[in-house]
Amino acid sequence: MDNVGRGNWVSEKLLPPIMKVVNTKAMNALKDGMVYSLPFIIIGSIFLILSNIPYKPVAQALTDSGWSAIFTQAYTTSFGIMAVWAVVGIAYVYVRNEGFEALPAGLTSLAIFLGLQSLQVASPLSAAMGKAGSGVGSLSGTQVAEHIDKLPHALQTFLTSPVTGAINITWLGGQGMIAAILIGIFVGWGYSAMLRAGWKITLPEQVPANVANQFTAMIPAGVLITVAMFIYAFFSFIVKEDLLQTIYTLIQTPLQGLSDSFGGALIIAFLVPFFWFFGVHGGLIMGAITTGLLVPNTFDNAALYHAGKLSLANGAHIVTNEFYNNFINLTGSGITIGLVIFTLVAARSVQLKSLGKIEAVPGLFNINEPFLFGLPLVLNPFLAIPFFLTPVLVAASTYLVIYFGIVPPLNGVAAPWTTPPIISGFLIGGWKMAVWQAVVLVMSAAIYWPFAKKYDKMLLTQEQEAEAAENA
């Protein structure tokens, strides 16, 4: 099968079913709804850095003055509750796209998200007791347990029982993300379906719209919250744990493990340029598919970094959302900075030199549409190999340098995807990661250079022939 045949097979047979899934209402709600959490993740990352200054004297001064705790508070209530922003945003976007008043749907989604989890947290003494316990003050975990054992049984039970009537912040962060996605989509679908079916209270026209809208929301919100109540009851009485815990155990943990694997990193790195090659926005497609898994990985790393325990031995992830943004898509899909360098340094054809000047600045901010469509890289067999190969090799090598401890795991700080390379590396992993990003830029240049040279030579020949024909 020649290149044209392969391209037709992909565009006619492979892409349509994929795009059908990507363009579903649920996927659009997921993709656009998750965006609402992005400002809080980035803002929270700033406070995460401030509460964990790597310079020890400054860190100690912030701790002693109490400012470290203040920064932690800001981090916890922004980055730390990312699932809240997601569950509201996804339901909101779903219903908005259906043409209805959307904010009540988002708030209904939040109510259900909270209502499906047990409103209790474990007693702090439970984590402090035993050989592996954290202890209390100068007392070890074993000593705490020994002292508790001397108390009357009723008092022991009271002190070690869960604290009720409290929202467990664990489920508001990364560990609740998959549950938030599923609940947001379910609420958006159910809420819209009931409004389309006419399940609403209609008030006279004289009633102000802001009041009427709330009565419109009452029936679908009431139905959905009631259904959620029965689901909570089933899990509470029969399963003996809440739904969020079940989703985390059966769905999120295995999927996070899959996304965090070496093979998972390579598949993601390959599919981004693969979709782009055929003119489909690979970044958006893979971002929609992987965000729900990679963002929780980022959250887990941020929590470990904040606790001073960031290491693979403590459960840190290698493949996070920042791995995706700042390595797989560094300088744009296909990691095309190497091609930019060639066009600025060695290109002889007018086409490559002109496009290189246009792409130079956007490329520093990880934007490479001038190359994707202007060069073009889309459906260009001459540059297909480096376009596919560079992200895969970068993903593989970055995974391995973290796995073998050459550079530390990513710290969970969410640098905006437009942050220039090396700067983003420093923010997400310190100076070692910044150095590694510089190595990645060199890798990109080395991979693209021979292919770009041949392509440039071909373009130069075509330009010279066209000029000769003009002058003839």
UniProtKB/TrEMBL annotation:
The chain crosses the membrane at residues 35-55, 75-95, 102-122, 169-194, 215-238, 258-278, 327-347, 382-406, 426-449. It is found in: Cell membrane. Keywords: Cell membrane, Membrane, Sugar transport, Transmembrane, Transmembrane helix, Transport. Residues 10-451 form the PTS EIIC type-3 domain. One of its GO terms (biological process) is phosphoenolpyruvate-dependent sugar phosphotransferase system. GO terms for molecular function: protein-N(PI)-phosphohistidine-sugar phosphotransferase activity. One of its GO terms (cellular component) is plasma membrane. It is a multi-pass membrane protein. It comes from the Bacteria. This is Permease IIC component. It comes from Weissella cibaria.
